[in-house]
Amino acid sequence: MLAYAAQGVSGESGSQTGGQIHGYLTRTDAALTGLADVFRRLVTETKVESPDVYEVFIQMLERDAQAAQAAVRLALAQPAISSQLVDNLNASIHIRTLLTDLFLVDEILKQRLAESDHSSTS
């Protein structure tokens, strides 16, 4: 999306690059549906200590995903998706907040997997 935003594309309907960005945004929309439930399931399956602490974060993740999804859906509702629109979508605080949430989840999962691997080899 960053490369598309930098191209200065006007977003004419039916252009190849416009179709590609539409596909990316459609897949993003689909991925955001149920995202919090995926993390919730991981927390349950790994039987973490203090699952209530995780649940509070998951509720926040769910709200952030819904806000980001609303922005993505607004972009998808447009007849043509310009580079400027994508640039503004990338800059959206809702998208950035969600990405930060996901980076945090990623680090937590990496750490938990490393701990799990370490305890299984000991």
How does this model look, in words?
This protein has 122 residues and is an all-alpha fold. The protein has one domain. The protein is built from 6 helices and no strands. The protein has helices at residues 2-6, 16-32, 35-46, 51-76, 83-91, 93-121. The longest helix has 29 residues, at 93-121. The model has no long low-confidence stretch (mean pLDDT 85).
Give the helix level as a range of percent.
over 70%
Low-confidence stretches: none
Number of helices: 6
Gross morphology is: elongated
Instruction: Report the C-alpha radius of gyration, rounded.
Output: 18 Å
N- and C-termini, Cα separation: 44 Å
- State the order of secondary-structure elements, H for helix, E for strand: HHHHHH
| Total of domains | 1
* Range of strand content: under 5%
- Number of beta-strand segments: 0
What's the mean pLDDT score? 85
Please describe the biggest sheet, giving its number of strands, its sense, and whether it closes into a barrel.
none
Structural class: mainly alpha
